[in-house]
Amino acid sequence: MKLSRATGTRSTRLVAFAVVLQLSMGLLSVAVVDQPDVQRQPAATPSTAPEPRAAGAQRAAPSAAELERAADTERKGQVERLLAARSAAILGRDRTAFLATVDPRAAALQARQAAMFDALAAVPIGTWKYGLTQRSGRAADAALDLRYGRGLWWAPPVTLSYGLAGFDDIPTIDKHHLTFVRRDGRWLLGADDDFDAVGGRTPRALWERGPVAAVRAPGVLALGHEDTSVLRNVASLTSAAIPRVNEVWGEQWGKRVVVIVPSSAQEMASLIDSTQDFSQIAAVATAEVSDASGEDAIERILVNPDTFTKLGQLGRRVVLTHEVTHVAARRVTGPAVPAWLAEGLADYVGYKDVKVPLSVAARNLRKDVRAGRLPTALPTDEAFNGGNPALAQAYEQSWLAVRLLVERYGEAELLAFYRAVGASEGSDSSVVLSTELRDAFGIDDVRLIADWRAALQRQLG
Ligand SMILES: [Zn+2]
Q1: Ranges of H-type helices in 22-148
Q2: From ligand 1's centre to the CA of 275, what distance in Å?
Q3: CA dist 35 to 16, 268, 345, Å?
């Protein structure tokens, strides 16, 4: 599954994992992976050549260029103060001050900004800062000249950097495409959607898509649009998953999880800016990783309400434990980790101590095996694409491969193997895998596949 997100200004990597579910019998299978690299390059800063000035020339009246530069500087200063006032109003929960930064003539924007401010009431905001990233704005635009008046609008690149208190170690940085307008000598926010049609869409967070309810449970912040039984259920199941994950994975991870429950699959896709097919997916885990060290990341689990709510409690438990496993393992899940290993581990933890017979938990694969279609290779990364009609089998195959390794060599050895593959800087995943299989278990991939096929035949045939 490939996800990408065109926001922010730093180079980041977005890792996404999904859980697939088998709707029949209210149970599910698991997983998915993905590691698209999204390079975020700040736009080039146009350079302003210094105005040549003849040496020894007498100071005369300021030139037109100097006057323009002075006006630019004043405008920049005013807009920076406006952005600082907006940031302070959000942090200080001052609704009147916040709305005073918005053009009173922009009625629809006023209403949206008021709704966003109100939606943020439930959100634990740790940091919130709007800022100009560079001096320049968009070039001349006849339509905007017509709308606002020539020289009376400015659209410089703006970033919003924010973090959730108690959960985010580093901020989320979103690039906003705003238009500031001059009204009665003051610069105000005039629009946030003037550039939607030209690739300048401002990302809309959960709080810009309706009211927000927050439910807390130990280690967990669950955000949705309404305080429903589903949101409370997600919060408590996610919280209960943390010690289960610790028991297998250990405690060397943040042990804090933000889980978001949008109102629809469509909203979920929009929040992560993905065009994936989520019809078979119950939840995804994403991590936006700063390329600086890869240590810190903004991690979120997103629940697909369209599919998640069709699961029973046991299925929901498996899904959320699976996703929390991805969050816990994220730091050591390097690019050499194949999807089957990441998903297999998450399923292994998800299903551990869950009393579900293989005939149910691996029912799709069982059907294949019984029909004489024993898989000949472990699932490729592409097999975890949301549109794969055999997605459930890909998860089931991965789960049983990891389970086999645990049964044969031990859980601690499997985890050490995972960490070794994850830490490898080798660029060819299959080479890394062969090396680590040999080091960890003394087998090669041919042997792994032969053993795995024999186990599938024995367990499911
Ligand atoms: Zn997964």
Answers
A1: 64-91, 95-99, 107-119, 142-148
A2: 18
A3: 7, 18, 16
Q: How far is CA 394 from CA 15, 130, 264, 344, 401, in A?
A: 19, 43, 25, 9, 11
How far is residue 195's CA from residue 205's CA, in Å, rounded to a whole number?
A: 18
Question: pLDDT-derived band of residue 347, with 50, 70 and 90 as boundaries?
Answer: very high
Backbone angles phi, psi at 15, to 5 degrees: -110, 130
Domains of the chain: 69-208 (3.10.450)
Distance 339 CA to ligand 1 centre (A): 9
pTM higher than 0.85 for the full model? yes
Rounded CA separation 459/362 (Å): 10
Residues with Cβ within 5 Å of ion ligand 1?
A: 17, 31-32, 343, 346
How many A from CA of 115 to the centre of ligand 1? 34
250-293 residue pLDDT tens = 999 999 999 999 999 999 999 998 988 999 999 999 988 765 56
Taking the centre of ligand 1 as the mean of its atom positions, its distance from the CA of residue 205, in whole angstroms, is 23
Q: How far is the CA of 19 from the centre of ligand 1 (A)?
A: 5
